[in-house]
Design a protein that fits this description.
Number of domains: 1
Distance between the termini: 24 Å
Number of helices: 6
Helix content: 25-40%
Oligomer: single chain
Length: 227
């Protein structure tokens, strides 16, 4: 995965600095934030409850964050979704990923979060860990857009201000942040907006490594021991 750095305030044209990020370099403790507050208008029903193979999107996404030191789910308590984990209300009247990212940053125990929308069933732990490794400034995102993404608490003033002002586009917010753009395999970034967008449920995605629960726990414990 290649790294492109975008210094704060330089707009959409990044200053290019390419290299590779090692997952082993990710020693900082991390909060995984699952975003489950979307309206799912085009999908027609809550995406979190949609099934991909034998699991729901929510199950898959929650497992993808198992390597994190802390996991939170942010959404709308009013939705009353029957999920196997607690949901923290994002305390916002709007339905936008920005609201979940801001809520996650405010609630997280750690300085860096990795924010994951619930509708990315092919995303890999490797991709998420690489984003965290690259988050040396305010944010690290893939070339396709702001999510999934790693965000540091230093991004909160900008993101909170934009949320209060109703400027809800996360992509636009990145212009005001010190952001790294990571080239990620596009196949693991496929999001599902409509039922017909559902890909076949493979045993594993190309280029991915689906950790068993014991592997995820071992990785988490190793990182905690090094912090």
């Amino acid at each position: 995965m290649a790294l492109v750095s975008r210094p704060r305030g330089l707009g959409t044209q990044p200053a290019v600095s390419r290299g590779t990020m090692s997952v082993a370099a990710c020693l900082e403790r991390v909060t995984g934030v699952l975003l489950v507050g979307g309206a799912s208008r085009r999908f027609g029903s809550p995406k979190a409850l949609a099934r991909f193979g034998e699991k729901t999107f929510a199950d898959i996404a929650w497992e993808r964050l198992a390597w994190c030191d802390e996991r939170l789910a942010c959404g709308k308590l009013v939705d009353g979704l029957p999920l196997p984990f607690p949901v923290r209300d994002d305390d916002s009247l709007v339905r936008a990923p920005l609201a979940g990212v801001v809520a996650g940053l405010r609630a997280a125990c750690f300085d860096v979060i990795v924010a994951l929308p619930v509708d990315l069933p092919l995303v890999t732990d490797e991709a998420l860990q690489t984003l965290v490794s690259a988050c040396t400034g305010d944010a690290a995102v893939p070339q396709a857009g702001p999510l999934p993404g790693a965000y540091r608490r230093s991004a909160l003033p900008v993101l909170g201000r934009r949320l209060r002002a109703g400027d809800l586009a996360l992509t636009a917010a990145l212009v005001e942040l010190e952001t790294c753009v990571i080239e990620v395999d596009p196949s693991v970034l496929a999001n599902v907006n409509r039922p017909q967008d559902l890909p076949p449920a493979p045993t594993h995605a190309r280029g991915s490594r689906f950790c068993r629960p014991d592997e995820a726990i071992a990785l988490r414990d190793e990182r905690q021991g090094l912090s």
